[in-house]
Amino acid sequence: MDTETTYRVAVDLDACDGVFACLVRDDRFVEADGGLVGFDPADAAGPVERTADEVAATFSDGRVDEARTAAAACPLDAIAVEERDAADRRGGDA
Ligand code: SF4
Q1: Phi, psi for 41 (deg, rounded to 5)
Q2: Does 61 score more than 60 pLDDT?
Q3: Mean pLDDT for the chain overall
Q4: Tell me, what's the pLDDT at 88?
Q5: Which residues contact 2 (CB under 8 A, 6 or more apart)?
Q6: Residue 2 pLDDT > 60, yes or no?
Q7: Which residues line ligand 1 (CB under 6 A)?
Q8: How far is the CA of 32 from the centre of ligand 1 (A)?
Q9: Residue 27 — very low, low, confident or very high, per pLDDT cuts 50/70/90?
């Protein structure tokens, strides 16, 4: 029904401790260089955004529940899932 739902998943790398509880809940999370977490670019709807303190990716694959399960499982509460609707996305095109 809501396959158009786009959502951004962000990991606070200052909080992340590489426990990898997220990886076993959602296979879009991967181990990245440095022993912390990242995303497989092949899964994302756009480029994986990485800064010194955050890694984030946007998805529109109907798997937001899995992302929320991973976020709930993170013992350090480092994962944020933010839904964006299709209208926001169109309005945001530059
Ligand atoms: S579960 Fe949380 S702390 Fe562990 S790797 Fe994933 S984001 Fe980092």
Answers
A1: -60, -25
A2: yes
A3: 89
A4: 59
A5: 62
A6: no
A7: 11, 16-22, 37, 74, 76, 78-79
A8: 12
A9: very high
Structure tokens at 85: 């609707």
- By CB atoms closer than 10 A (0-12, 13-18, 19+), residue 2 is exposed
Q: Domains of the chain by range and CATH?
A: 6-89 (3.30.70.20)
Please give the pLDDT value at position 89.
54
Ramachandran region of residue 37, left (φ > 0), alpha (ψ -120 to 50) or beta?
beta
- Among 13, 14, 16, 39, the mutation site with the greatest number of ligand 1 atoms within 8 A of its Cβ is 16
Q: Locate the ligand 1 atom nearest the alpha carbon of residue 73 and give its number.
A: 1
